[in-house]
């Protein structure tokens, strides 16, 4: 028996380029549900900012959604810094080849 014959016959199953079922994390339906859950969690956390009184130490960290926008800016800054660093220290493809 081939691998294809051993697999269950599930209608509308997403298959990869080899004809095998995709991993559940690679399926479009799973990605859609994970995004939806992430958005719900993010919205819930932002709504909790109204209910929970935080004690600010520097003034700006008492603003609404501070940790959300600070995290976003810090993430973007890390990406830009890593791309700049990679541009500065990059080498040619044949850098380690014998000359």
Description of the structure:
There is one protein chain. This protein has 99 residues and is mainly α. The chain folds into 2 domains: 12-52; 58-90. Helix content is 53%, strand content 0%. It contains 3 helices and no strands. The protein has helices at 3-6, 28-51, 66-89. The longest helix has 24 residues, at 28-51. The radius of gyration is 24 Å and the shape is flat.
Secondary structure layout plus pairing:
Layout: H1 3-6, H2 28-51, H3 66-89
Strand content: under 5%
N-to-C SSE series? HHH
Mean pLDDT: 84
Query: Roughly how many Å is the radius of gyration?
Result: 24 Å
Instruction: Give the overall silhouette.
Output: flat
Overall SS class: mainly alpha
Major beta-sheet overview: none
Q: Name the helicity range.
A: 40-55%
Number of strands: 0
The parts where pLDDT drops under 50 for at least 5 residues are none
Please tell me the total number of domains: 2
Structure, briefly:
The protein is mainly alpha-helical.
Question: Which characteristics define this entry?
Answer:
single chain, 99 residues, mainly alpha, 3 helices, 0% strand
